[in-house]
Amino acid sequence: MVKKDYSEVLNKIDHIAEKIYSDFEKINIPYLNLPTRTKANIRFDDKLSVWKYGSNTTERSAKSLDGAYMLLRTMYMADFIKEMIKINKSSTLREMYYISEGWDLAKFHSQNESNLLAEDLEVITSCMREDFKLRPEEDGARVIGNLTIEEMTRNNTKKKIHCQDDVGDAGYSIPYNVEPEKITIKSFDADFIVAIETGGMFDRLVENGFDQSHRAVLVHLKGQPARSTRRFIRRLNHESKLPVLVFTDCDPWSYRIFASIAYGAIKTAHISEYLATPSSQYLGVTPSDIENYDLPTDVLTREDINALKSELTDPRFQDSFWKGEIKLQLKLGKKSEQQALAKYGLDYVTDTYLPEKLSEMGITKR
Amino acid sequence: MPKITAHDLAKKQKEISVAEFFERNKHILGFGNQTRALITSVKEGVDNGLDACEEASILPEIYVEIKNHEDSECKIIIEDNGPGVIKKQIPHIFGRLLYGSRFHAIRQSRGQQGIGISAVVLYGQLTTGKHAMITSKVEEDRPAFITELAIDTNKNRADVISRDTEHWEKPSGTRVQVSIVADFKRGKKYVYDYLQSTSIVNPHAQITYKEPDGTVHIFERTSENLPRKAVEIKPHPYGVELGTLIKMAKYTKARQLNSFLKTEFSSMGDRTTNAAIEKAGLEKNINPKEMTRDQFLALHKAFNKVKIMAPSTDCLSPIGETLIKRSLKHETQEISPEFIITASRPANVYSGNPFQIEVGLVYGGSLPKEEPVKILRFANRVPLLYQQGGCVITSAISSIDWRRYGLTQPSGKGVPTGPAIFLAHVSSTQIPFTSESKEAISDVSEIENEVKLAFRECARKVQQHIHKKVRRVKTREKFDLITRILPEIAKKSAHMLDKPVPSLDPIITKIMDVVWIEDLIEYEKVDREPVQTTLVEEGVEKPKEGVITKSKIIVVNYKRQPQKFNLYALIPQDAVVGTATPKPAKITDNYIKWSLDTIQPANKVDVVFELAGLEKGDFDENDLYVENINPTFVIGADKWEGD
Q1: What is the pLDDT of residues A267-292, one digit of tens each?
Q2: Out of B499, B502, B511, whose CB is closest to A62?
Q3: Residues from chain A contacting residue B502 (CB–CB below 8 Å)
Q4: B497 and A CB contact within 8 Å
Q5: How many CB atoms lie within 10 A of CB B241?
Q6: Is the pTM of this model over 0.90?
Q7: How far is C-alpha B265 from the chain's CA centre?
Q8: Which H or E run includes A60?
C-alpha cells in the first residue's frame, strides 16, 4: 500500500488549535468560522461545474453555550484524529462516536452529531474524511459491467477483477476507499453507465442481461449513495468519458439522489468536485413517464409535497426540466416506483422502457 | 259566591314566626339539599367557634366530627376552645334565630345575622326530630353545662328539654352536637375542602376533623399570632340608608345636628359636617330629633355630594401577605408548586363600607394543566364553596386577559386554564352577599375593580418572576461554560500545541459582561434574641425567639470596568432586621438599602442580613433592586423605581 504523507493534514489540524490558543492569548472570545451548510448557501461553481458552499459563514463562538460545546468537541475530535495518524490506525465514524463517550463534557448525544462535526472538520481544514483516517460504516454499492478494476488488497497485493467474469450476480463491491492508492480502472468496453436506485431493479437488469445486451455498466446506488459510490461514479466517468444515467423512483427523495450525484450534496458541498459527476443525466422515472407509460401510482404524502416544494426553491433544481417535472408531479399529486414498470411484464423495462428512453436521450440509436 | 270582607281576611292574617319562615325557605339559608345542609351545618359551627375564640383572644382549636348513622342521618359534633357561653344565654344563642352580638356592630366578623348556628339546630330538629346538645364551659375549675335544646318554631324561642353537668378537660369551650339528615357520601369532599380552605385563611387555627370511618385529618396551625382585632366603627355617611339615618337621629344623645353628625358617624370632621349641612340647606344647630322627613332626605342626599374621607380601616382584619403565602405553601406541599405569589390592595370603600382585597396565586408543580384554574374564594376568612359563577371574584378574574401570563384562555375571557390555584379574600364590615346563604359576593363595581387590580399585580409579579428566572437560567448556563467548558478548551488547545495553558480570567469577564447578583437563604433556629439594627439608636423592637432568616447576597462584577451602585432588598413588613453587613445606608419598614463600595472587575462582595419574626420558609427569595447602574448589565436584580 502506498504510504500516504499525513504531514499536511497534521498541519491543518494544528492550525485549528493555534487559532483557538491565540484567541486566548489575545483575550478574544475563542471562535471558529465555517461556511454555512444549508441549501441557502450553495452556489454553482462555473469552473468545476458543481455546487459548492457560498460565502455565508457560521461562527462557532464560546460566547454561547452551544458554541462553546462545539468548540470543545472540535478540539477533542482534532486531537483524536492527530492521535490516530500518529499511531497509524483508522476508525469508523461509529467507533469514533463510541470513543467520544469518554470525552466527558465533549461527548456527543447522537452519532449524527459526531458525523456532522467530522464533516465540519473537513470543511474547516479542506481535508477529506479519508485524510482523518475516518471511514464510513456503510460500504459502497455494487457494479456489474464489462470493466476491469485493479484493487490493492489488505495483503498489499494488486488484484485484477473483471466486473462480469470474476464476480457473481451480486457484482463487484465498491470499497469505502476508492482513491488511486486503492483502486485503478484498468480497462472497459461499454457505451454508458446506469446508476440504479433500488436493488430490485439492479437485479432485474442483471437477470435480463442488460449489461451485455446494451453494453452498459450497472451501478447499484443503494438508496442515497455513499460517498465512495459517488466518488467511484465520478472517477469512472472522468477516466472513461462514458455518459452517466441515473435511474430512480419517481418521487422527491429520488430526485435528491440524482442531485447528489450530478450537482453535489448540500452536506458535502465542500468536496463536490471530488464526488459529483456534473455530466450525469436523469433517465427516469419522471412524472411525465407516469402519464406517458400510464404507470401504477401512489398518492403524494404531505412530506412528499413539502419536499417537492422545497426542491422548487433549491438552487440545484432551477432548470426548466426539473421545474417542469416537479410542477407536473405536484399537479398530478402522484408518485411511482421503478418497479412499477413490471405492470407490463418483467422484460418491459429492458426491452421497451430503457431502450426508448436511451434513444430519446440520444445515448443509443433506435 | 259569598262576599269575603276585610274582616274575614283579618281572621287569617297573623304573624309568621321567623322559624316558620325558615321551615319553608330553608334553601335561602343554605339547607337546600342534603349535601348542602351538611356543609352549611359544619360551616356555621366552625365559623361560630372561630369567631368566639378570636373575640376572646384565644388561639382557636376546632374539632369537627361527623358520625354517619344508618340511612342519611348524620351526627355532627363541633367543638371549640373559646370562652364558652354562660348557661343563661345558651337557649338564646342556640335556640333562637336572629339573636346575636354581632348584628349591630360595624366591623369585620364571620357571622353577622345570628341565624347560622340556630338554623342548624332548627334544621336538625325538623329533619330528625332530635334535640341539639350544647356543652359549654366558661371557667377553668367549674364543670361544663350540658343543655338539651329544642326550638319552638311558633314563638322563635328555645325549649330547654334537660340540663346536666359533666367534667370536661378543656379550660373553656363550647361543643355543639346536632343530628341532621344529610348526604355524607356526596358531601364528604366538600366538607374536607371547606375545612382545608378555612385553614388556609385562618393560619392561626388548628382544625381537627374526624370522618365517620375514623379517619382523622389535622389542619395544622401555621401562625401563632391571632389576627389583628377588628375595631368597631361608626357608620360611614356614604353607606347609611335613609331609614337608618332617621332611626339614629331618634336615639342620639346629641342635641344639635352638627354634633350628631360628628359623634355618630365616622370620617365626619368639622369641615365635612358643615359642608354637608350647608349642601342640605339646613341649620347646624337644629335638634336632630325634631327633623322632618324632607330634612332627612336632603341631608341624606347631601352626604353623597360632599367629599368625605374613607372610613378608617381598623374595622378590617386582613390576613396579610406573609400568612397567606405561608398557608398556601403549607396546604400545597404535596403539589410542590413552582412558586406562590401574593398581592394585597389598600383598603377601599363601597357604599360607605370599608373593604380590602388580598389575593394569592399558586403555580405549577403537579397541578393539572388541562383544567380550569381552581378559584378559592373567601369572605371575612370564610370559604365560599358554591355559586362560583355568580360571584364578583370570578367575574373579575374572567375579565383579565391571562394569556400573556402563560395560562390558556380562549378569546381572552373567562376562567383561564392551567396549572394554577387562585385565592381571593374579601374582608369587609359588610360583605354584599348575593343571598342569605352567603355563597357568592354580588356584583359591586368597586370590589370587582379592586379584585382585578390585585390579580393584575399578582400576574405582574408572576411575569417578573418568570422573566427573572429565565435570565438567571441563561446566565447560569454561561457560568457553566466559564467554569467547566472554557478551561477544557484552553487545556486541549494547549495540549495539542504543547504549550502552557493560557490564562482565562480576562476572557471570563469578557464573555459574562454582567454584574451577577445571587442570593442564598438559610434558616437558623436561635435562642438568642436578635437586636434590631437601626441607623438611629432608638425604637428597638424586641422580636420573639424562633427562626432567623439569613440572607446572603453575592454580588460579582463580571464587567470590565469597576462598578459602584446602590442595592435594595425588599423585606416583609412584619419582619425585624437583625445584623446586616456591610452597614446599610438606610433601613425602612419595606427595604434595606446599601451603597456598595466600588467593586473591581472579577471581584465580589457579600451582602448579608438577618430577619427575625418570620417562620421558616416565609421568606424564600430576595426581591432585589439596583440604582445608579444600567439595569441591563445586572442579572438577579431589577431597576429601583423609588419608594
Answers
A1: 888 888 889 999 999 998 999 999 99
A2: B511
A3: 21, 24-25
A4: yes
A5: 12
A6: no
A7: 27
A8: strand A57-61
Judged by a CB distance cut-off of 8 A, whether residue A81 touches chain B is no
Active-site hit among A21, A76, A97, A98: A98
Would you state the cell numbers that stand for residue B269, as one nine-digit string?
370632621
Judging by DSSP bridges, how do beta strands B515-526 and B634-635 pair with one another?
parallel
Architecture of domain A142-360: 3-Layer(aba) Sandwich (3.40)
- CA-to-CA distance for B481 and B48, rounded, in angstroms? 61
* CB contact (8 A) between residue A68 and residue B485: yes
A63 confidence band (pLDDT: 50, 70, 90):
confident
Q: What is the rounded distance in angstroms from the CA atom of residue B17 to the CA atom of residue B152?
A: 10
* HEC assignment per residue over A66-93: HHHHHHHHHHHHHHHHHHHHHHCCCEEH
A244: pLDDT strictly greater than 70? yes
**A43 CB contacts (<8 Å, ≥6 apart)?**
A51, A52, A53, A54, A55, A315
Q: B132-137 and B144-152: which strand pairing?
A: antiparallel
Is A83 an 8 Å CB contact of chain B?
no
Return the closest-CA partner of residue B162 out of B138, B137, B131, B136: B131
| R_g of chain A, CA atoms, integer Å | 22
Top-ranked range on mean pLDDT: pick from A137-141, B91-95, B381-385? B381-385
**Using CB atoms within 10 A of its CB, is residue A168 exposed (0-12), middle (13-18) or buried (19+)?**
exposed
Task: Tell me the chain B residues in contact with residue A28 when contact means C-beta distances shorter than 8 Å.
Answer: 507
Cβ atoms within 10 Å of B250's Cβ, excluding its own: 10
- What is the spatial distance between Cα A321 and Cα A331, in angstroms, rounded to a whole number? 15
Topology (CATH level 3) of domain A7-135: Arc Repressor Mutant, subunit A (1.10.10)
- Reported residue count of chain B is 643
B548, β-bridge pairs: B524
Domains annotated on chain B, with CATH = 18-219 (3.30.565.10), 237-310 (1.10.8.50), 342-463 (3.30.230.10), 509-639 (2.60.40.290)
- For residue A201, give the 3-state DSSP assignment: helix
> In one letter, which amino acid is B488?
E
| Nearest C-alpha in B relative to A76 | B492
Task: Walk across the sheet containing B73-80 and list its strands.
Answer: B157-166, B144-152, B132-137, B173-181, B73-80, B61-68, B206-210, B216-219
| CB neighbour list of residue A93: distance below 8 Å, 6 or more residues apart | A111, A114, A115, A118, A134, A135, A136, A137
Burial bucket for residue A239 (CB in 10 Å: 0-12, 13-18, 19+): exposed
A97 is catalytic: no
Residue B233 grid coordinates? 366603627
Residues ≥6 apart with Cβ < 8 Å to B56 = B82, B83
- Topology agreement, domain A7-135 and domain A142-360: no
**Beta-ladder partners of B147:** B134, B163
Q: Which residues of B touch A71 (CB under 8 A)?
A: 489
For residue B238, pLDDT beyond 70: yes
Which residues, at least 6 apart from A157, have a Cβ–Cβ distance to it below 8 Å?
none
Mean pLDDT of B322-351: 84
Task: Please give the distance of CA B172 from its chain centroid, rounded to a whole number.
Answer: 27
CB neighbour class for A182 (10 Å; exposed up to 12, middle 13-18, buried from 19): middle
Residue A55 has pLDDT above 50, yes or no: yes
Neighbouring residues of A143: CB distance < 8 A, sequence distance ≥ 6: A163, A171, A172, A174, A217, A218, A219, A220, A232
Among B477, B492, B498, B507, the residue to mutate for chain A (most A Cβ within 10 A): B492
Q: Where are the domains of chain A?
A: 7-135, 142-360
Report the distance separating Cα B185 and Cα B188, nearest Å: 6
Q: How far apart are CA B504 and CA B484, in angstroms?
A: 12
